[in-house]
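Handout for the seminar on molecular recognition.
Each group receives one record of this type.
Step one: identify the two inputs.
Step two: read the structure output and locate the region that could contact iron/sulfur cluster.
Step three: write two sentences on what you found, then compare them with the reference statements printed after the record.
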Amino acid sequence: MNEMFCFQCEQTAGGIACTKSGVCGKNSGTAAIQDELTGALIAASRKGADLSDELLIEGLFATLTNVNFDDAALKALRDKVGQPYYNLYNVRDADEDTRSLKTLLLLGVRGIVAYAYHSQVLGYDISGIAAFIRKALSAIAEPDWGLTELLPLVMECGKVNLDALALLDKANTETFGTPEPTTVARTIEPGPFIVVSGHDLRDLKLLLEQTEGKGVNVYTHGEMLPAHGYPGLKKYAHLKGNFGTAWQNQQKEFAGVPGAFLFTTNCLMPPKPSYSDRVFTTSAVGYPGLTHIEDKNFAPLIAKALELGGYTEAQSGGTFTSGFGHSAILSNAEAIVAAVKSGAIKRFFLIGGCDGTKSERSYYTDFAKLTPADSVILTLGCGKYRLNDIDFGTVAGLPRLLDMGQCNDAYGAIKVALALAEAFSCGVNDLPLSLVISWYEQKAVSILLTLLHLGIKNILLGPTLPAFVSPNILNYLVENFGIAPVTTPEADLRKIAA
Ligand code: FSO
Ligand code: SF4
């Protein structure tokens, strides 16, 4: 008898499932409460129970990988939903194709909520998105549904995720301005400081307001790096730069640092005792023993940063460049189209997605290094940290590496691809564009479904394929969309060139 069953992320045990404890640090008790919370949301959706969109979104968000490990917080959410739980083992015991499609649907909507959440807190209407989430959750509990009923819903999930990404793009740019190319310092200056991780720009903005004039500098971490490109955030002089790299390095990078940390969303790893006193959480994030800030009054976090005092001398680092959102790239559209027509730019590579712990992820660094000098590399998500300290030079007057933002900004990459296809009067699949995607958690699942919904073919996916995709469903994806696992950078580049 398994103590738990979770196979929702790329690092799942043995490439099959975490059944004793999670590789991410989630224990079987926490996994059980997350299942009950999910089951309660499924039951509520099926019944049409009176459940607010906020609770639906927050409840699902708390079950994403590396978000909430706090049993008390998860139980409170479960009890707030207040429904007898649908038993997820019904899905796990179904035939493998039904299980695969129902899992794709569940993980797809888990990804969608992460995007919808940020729009919702900025005051945007997510009711249409929430209605689909309820429909999808209901479908998971349909006892007799198989391929015929579930496959269209899985594809619809990709469409609704595109809506969620478009809404978030609108919400972020209307609230914080259009991102612009920005050089981001990696030097940590002397004095008290706070490092903000996760994806929520509103939390960063609130913290910048509350720290203004207090002698506390603010640095981004991980997926918060692209925040520096937004006029409404970069205007704060005490938003100084970026600390560290991608999420999986946090236990090493946070140790012994005299600053305080705020996690606004994933990816939180179990904090080491050497620094757990200075890690704070907010919104859907939680971990037992850490201080959770519910009401967005960051006074305890600011007090901690002041108490720790920061470094006495600057800790020098280099710089990153970020802020190449779709507007910045498309403002150069004419020059880009001309460069493609003249042969100065021969190919675009989108190399991005999530980062993670596996050594095989060096594939993405090696692949980027091997791309020809007459190509442009678009990147986004925390996977960018595999490439963004490399000088790729320029092509046709543009930097060869363009950081388009968070994984949440995948919409921008889609917009650029559609605009180029229009400029060349062709389909996206006819463009000299190759997608080399790294996945880790459920947001990447929903983005993959969006790419499939758009009919985008020949995606290279790695570092390994999802454990929840059955051989038949994989065959379907290979036959209809040409999805392929990454192999070696040399072989994959040869295949693309051919
Ligand atoms: Fe990364 Fe984590 Fe942004 Fe994910 S920080 S892995 S797909 O949560 O959300 O890219
Ligand atoms: Fe395992 Fe990933 Fe689930 Fe954590 S989230 S328990 S690592 S499959």
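Reference statements: The pocket of iron/sulfur cluster (ligand 2) is lined by residues 6-9, 11-12, 18, 22-24, 26, 65 (CB under 6 Å). The mean pLDDT is 97.
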